[in-house]
Amino acid sequence: MFLVFLGPPGCGKGTQAQYLQNESGFTVISSGNLIRAEIEAQTEFGKQIEESYKTGKLMPGDAVLELVQKVVATEGAKSILFDGFPRTVSQATAFDSYLRSIHREIDAVISFSIEDSIIVDRILGRITCADCKHVFHVRSNPPIVEGVCDNCGGTKLERRADDTEESIRQRLDEYHQKTEPLKEFYKSKGIMVEIDANQAIEMVRQQMQQEIDAISGKSNKEKSIGTYSRC
Ligand SMILES: [Zn+2]
To answer: Would you kindly state where each structural domain of the chain is located, as residue ranges?
Structure first.
């Protein structure tokens, strides 16, 4: 199954992707992680994009597409979850033609809907342990002892430098302008389901699992009908 997660930064889709990777054996392809890996390895491409990545500019779309395609080609028939990719309608169109060329398609798109004000609150309250990267929230999920990480006992609980209200609003604006039109794009193909991501993580997870079960049930049924018709 090829699955796409669509949603603004801070909607919680990364957490849900992690869950599917651990519990359902999905390979998660996150364009952000791919880009960071290229930069760390200082590949030709990594060197080219390092500057625009650091200054927060949008990556050149074709280059990201190429990176993703390379991973899809190596992963082959596995179940893949695309987290935060595609980002624009033109990227999605190009990706669709690539998938057609290898006789695959996106089976479903899960869109995480959430209000901007909730995202701003979530991100501004987020603190991360510098040692183990565990994430807390000052109000909704604080560490048991203030200033001490529950997970590893570390005492460097920090806000990310780019988690300012201004930069969050900027990222949200970019999402609404460039990425949100993908909702209509996938809706018109009849493969999109929407989940209310204003809810608690556990509720979102349950709803997501139900949707995925329904989708994989449907595609199995379609496959068996296909078999019958060939008989
Ligand atoms: Zn820690």
So the answer is: 2-115+163-230, 126-161
- Burial class of 196 by CB neighbour count within 10 A (0 to 12, 13 to 18, 19+): exposed
Ligand 1 centroid vs 71 CA: distance in angstroms?
31
- Cα–ligand 1 centroid distance for 23 (angstroms): 23
Model confidence, pTM: 0.81
What CA–CA distance (Å, rounded) separates 145 from 4? Answer: 38
What's the CATH class of domain 2-115+163-230? alpha beta
What residues pack around ion ligand 1 (CB closer than 5 A)?
129, 131-132, 134, 149, 151-152, 154
The predicted-structure confidence for 173-227, as pLDDT tens digits, reads as follows 999 999 999 999 999 999 999 999 999 889 999 999 999 999 888 766 665 554 4
